Amino acid sequence: MDIIEIIEHKRDKKKLSQKEIEFFIEGYVKGEIKDYQASSLLMAIYLNGMDKDEIAYLTEAMRVSGEVWDLSIIPGIKVDKHSTGGVGDKVSLILGPMIASLGAKLAKMSGRGLGHTGGTIDKLESIPGFRVNLTKEEFIKQVDEIGMAIIGQDKNIDPADKKIYALRDVTGTVSSIPLISSSIMSKKLASGADAILLDVKYGNGAFMKTIEDAKNLATTMVEIGKSLNKDVKAEVTDMNQPLGCAVGNNLEIKEVIDTLKGKGPKDITEICISSGAILLNQAKLFNSIEEARKAIIENVNNGKAFNKFVEFVKHQGGDISYILDPSKFDVAKNIVEVYSTKEGYVHSIDALSIGKSSMHLGGGRETLDDVIDMSAGIVLNKKVGDKVSKNELLATLYTNKDEFWSVKQNVLDSFIIKKEKVKEEHSLTHEIIE
Ligand code: URA
Predict the structure, then answer these.
(1) How many Å lie between the centroid of ligand 1 and the Cα of residue 401?
(2) Which of 165, 196, 201 to mutate to test the pocket of ligand 1 (most atoms within 8 A of CB)?
(3) CA of 251 to the centre of ligand 1 (A)
(4) What is the pLDDT of residues 213-248, one digit of tens each?
(5) What is the pLDDT of residues 41-59, one digit of tens each?
(6) Which residues of the chain, if any, have pLDDT below 70?
(7) Which residues, in sequence order, are bridge partners of residue 150?
(8) How far is residue 34's CA from residue 37's CA, in Å, rounded to a whole number?
(9) 358 lines ligand 1 (CB under 6 A)
């Protein structure tokens, strides 16, 4: 077997065999297959696609390209949650303590933010002292003892994905459903959870711009799970406006705290409860979604969910005095208010533009080497459907940069305000695929 023949097969729209896919992954990880050959094959996959079997073979070959963590020493069903990323998406940080306070075991690896999207790991690092790199032993011990741990992607897991993702990034081959689904699922499956809930976002702040593409990606990943005998479910959710009101690292941690105390924005509260209920059901801790929802709401109201967050931060070395008194977080030196120039109702808020604006204020990174300003970001005062008067506050910008005028204009332009009322409030979750 040789790589040129494999490239030719995919170029000519032939189905690749399991052996061919394994040959490619093993050879590329070892450095025997060169970047230019891998790029050529990735482009052929991008253009000609892969069928269900090929995607399952690719995922499996990537999954076993490095360490595969075994969490079976922890009693019970271990769950994991993954979002395809968006603006203001702090769901895992809220849902984790909600479900861990009810006996679930959340074992999660997360990523950093890039471009307009934020990353859970950056948000956690805005808590002084928080350790995102636990060893495997520490990770397992913590999940077992307190029911949750969230760490950065371990460097020994899925080296194939690391190499392939970096190559896709510079060869125009990122937005391919076979490549995205195998990338996400191989990492998730290698990190050892028994049940996985995927949140596949659609809309202008998401990877997938349309519901159809998001559904297609979600279905592909659920099918990979089935072919490998894992309990994988996927929600298809709206990312046409930022999730919650806060965008930016320590601003989002403050919103996490508010939401865990029952004082969070409606949309983020609802998605955390509904996703949490699905996970509790996957963990077989509750027989119905309705019972699980009730239990989550009860643990928010009685303080157990918030206390679990404090316990989690403490176990990972974070300074809990910031969680108990969020006014301790640094506040950026420039606080800039954006007022409406019109009266009416908010019809949309451009999530992509808000995400990019937060990045330009210092809250995100354009390249992986950029250093984030943890205090920078945006807090929205109005969301879709809200009534607005002329000169009413729409959003507040936080930045240590002195040139923020164009960002201020962009944030104002992100709000589409019209005279007529917004027709109906649609649910954030479009569909659940299982
Ligand atoms: N996230 C991943 O982990 N991989 C992709 O290919 C896209 C998003």
Answers:
(1) 31
(2) 165
(3) 25
(4) 999 999 999 999 999 889 999 999 999 999 999 999
(5) 999 999 999 999 999 999 9
(6) none
(7) 108
(8) 5
(9) no
Q: Is the CB of 184 under 6 A from ligand 1?
A: yes
Tokens representing 55 are 């995607």
* pLDDT at position 367: 78
Distance CA 308, CA 99 (A): 9
Are 257 and 309 a contacting pair, CB within 8 Å?
yes
CA of residue 111 to ligand 1 center, whole Å: 10
Which protein residue's CA is at the shortest distance from atom 6 of ligand 1? 180
Contacts of 132-139 with C-beta under 8 Å, sequence gap 24+, read 132/316, 134/316, 136/67, 136/69, 139/107
For residue 263, indicate whether it is catalytic. Answer: no
Does residue 183 have its Cβ closer than 6 Å to ligand 1? Answer: yes
Query: Residue 180: CB within 6 Å of ligand 1?
Result: yes
Which amino acid is present at 366? E
**Angstrom distance (rounded) from CA 229 to CA 223:** 10
What's residue 426's pLDDT?
76
Indicate the top mutation candidate among 180, 191, 220 to test ligand 1's pocket, ranked by most ligand atoms within 8 A of CB: 180
Ligand 1 center to 432 CA (angstroms):
20
CA 360 to CA 403: how far, in whole Å? 10
How far is Cα 432 from Cα 200, in angstroms, rounded to an integer?
10
What are the residues facing 346 on neighbouring strands?
Answer: 417
Q: Which of 78, 168, 308, 382 is catalytic?
A: 168
Handedness of CA 72, 73, 77, 83 (dihedral sign): negative
161 is catalytic: yes
User: Active-site residue 293, yes or no?
Assistant: no
Q: Are strands 415-418 and 344-349 parallel, antiparallel or unpaired?
A: antiparallel
Which tokens hold the place of 200? 């596949």
Residue 247 in contact with residue 350, Cβ under 8 Å? no
Catalytic, out of 158, 161, 267, 350: 161
Q: In 3-state terms, what secondary structure has residue 83?
A: strand
Distances (CA, A) of 274 to 182, 233, 293, 294, 304: 26, 13, 7, 10, 18
For the chain, the 3-state helix, strand and coil shares in percent, each to the nearest 5, are 45, 15, 40
Ligand 1 centroid – CA 183 distance (Å): 6
**What is the rounded end-to-end Cα distance, in angstroms, of the chain?**
37
Q: Which residues contact 92 (CB under 8 A, 6 or more apart)?
A: 81, 83, 108, 110, 120, 150
Give the residue, by CA position, lying nearest to ligand 1 atom 7. 180
